[in-house]
């Protein structure tokens, strides 16, 4: 592994494995342990998380998982700080423009919680063909603001090594989170138990990879269920409108004139996915118009909401005490609403 700002060694998930919290940890994490328990806190502090790309969503997610007390954070990013990064990237300052993002952010991330080990990797070759060597020795992988082909490739590597996979990002005023936790066990409330003294039972959910999830058919939902899920937003992003455009052109849409192409892509996908025609015949023009001009920009409030929820769900997955999302979440900054859809999960 090249260009690590630590010693240059691979992140080792066994470096911090232990069963007892130190006095400093017990004091720092006392409030949250009262919320989710000592066992969950220990699982978090023993976890090594890999985050790929440091943009607005990742910035918010990193802040939250570091404050929560994970054991080790490994960040991979080879880009320099741009002026646009200053809007949603609160780890950056004006004087950082032109520096490597990770060189500018590392000390500020570490200052959030000195009990968390932070390792940064700026070698661009890692992003192309070296990620597998890192993925196999971490506990959870999170990739943000990446194209569909890259996300699917990393997801498959994660499955090879049985590593939970998260991805997320924003496109202007809309954002998303996807997770593939393979076979994930957690504690859920037993609905058969008395409400006065509720009991929990161990539950297991089986997840599906991204490449399979996006081929989800919508014909098993009633009209009411379809309305509640808001499929238009899924087809704008996860139904591949944005992703397919990005794959075809090598960039995100950035011109209002591109709305017709986005509309053609989205409507074709809606038809193939067999969406209830009483709810959605075609993608709303106003949504696509917004995406065509804002998709390549970051808005701090949207990044904060999506990144915060991404971190919360990662902590749920690590703690094993609550059900994580299953398996797609989308957020619409135009309305301030979000929704979760179970896509091609058994």
From TrEMBL:
As for subcellular location, the record says: Nucleus
Alphabetical UniProt keywords: Nucleus, Ubl conjugation pathway
Q: Which InterPro entries does its entry note?
A: ThiF/MoeB/HesA, ThiF_NAD_FAD-bd, Ubiquitin-activating_enz, UBQ/SUMO-activ_enz_E1-like
Q: What's an example Gene Ontology biological process for this entry? A: protein sumoylation
Cellular component (GO) terms are: cytoplasm; SUMO activating enzyme complex
Q: Where is the composition biased (Polar residues)?
A: 1-16
Q: In which pathway does it act?
A: Protein modification; protein sumoylation
Region (Disordered) residue spans: 1-24
UniProt domain THIF-type NAD/FAD binding fold: residue ranges: 29-342
Any GO MF annotation of the entry? SUMO activating enzyme activity
Q: What is its main location?
A: nucleus
Recorded family membership: Belongs to the ubiquitin-activating E1 family.
Cross-referenced PANTHER family: SUMO-ACTIVATING ENZYME SUBUNIT 1, UBIQUITIN-ACTIVATING ENZYME E1
Q: What protein name does the entry list? A: Ubiquitin-like 1-activating enzyme E1A
């Amino acid at each position: 592994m090249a260009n690590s700002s630590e010693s240059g060694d691979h992140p080792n998930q066994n470096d911090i494995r232990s069963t007892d919290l130190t006095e400093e940890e017990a004091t720092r994490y006392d409030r949250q342990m009262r919320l989710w328990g000592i066992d969950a806190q220990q699982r978090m502090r023993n976890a090594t998380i890999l985050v790929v790309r440091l943009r607005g969503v990742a910035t918010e997610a990193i802040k939250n998982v570091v404050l929560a007390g994970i054991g080790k954070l490994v960040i991979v990013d080879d880009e320099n700080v741009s002026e646009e990064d200053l809007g949603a990237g609160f780890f950056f300052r004006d004087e950082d423009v032109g520096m490597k993002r990770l060189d500018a952010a590392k000390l500020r991330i570490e200052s959030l919680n000195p009990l968390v080990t932070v390792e940064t990797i700026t070698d661009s070759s890692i992003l192309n063909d070296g990620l597998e060597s890192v993925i196999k020795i971490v506990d959870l992988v999170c990739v943000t603001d990446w194209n569909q082909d890259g996300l699917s490739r990393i997801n498959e590597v994660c499955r090879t090594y049985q590593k939970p996979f998260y991805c997320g990002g924003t496109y202007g005023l809309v954002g998303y989170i996807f997770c593939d936790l393979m076979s994930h066990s957690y504690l859920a409330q037993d609905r058969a138990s008395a409400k006065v003294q509720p009991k929990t039972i161990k539950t297991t959910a089986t997840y599906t990879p991204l490449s399979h999830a996006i081929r989800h058919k919508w014909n098993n939902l009633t009209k009411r269920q379809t309305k509640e899920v808001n499929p238009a937003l899924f087809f704008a992003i996860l139904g591949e409108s944005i992703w397919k455009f990005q794959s075809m052109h090598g960039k995100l849409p950035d011109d209002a004139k591109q709305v017709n192409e986005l509309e053609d892509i989205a409507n074709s996908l809606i038809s193939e996915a067999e969406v209830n025609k009483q709810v959605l015949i075609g993608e709303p023009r106003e949504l696509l118009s917004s995406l065509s001009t804002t998709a390549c920009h970051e808005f701090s409030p949207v990044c904060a909401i999506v990144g915060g929820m991404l971190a919360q769900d990662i902590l749920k997955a690590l703690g094993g005490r609550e059900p994580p999302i299953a398996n797609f979440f989308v957020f619409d900054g135009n309305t301030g609403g979000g929704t979760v859809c179970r896509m091609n999960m058994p």
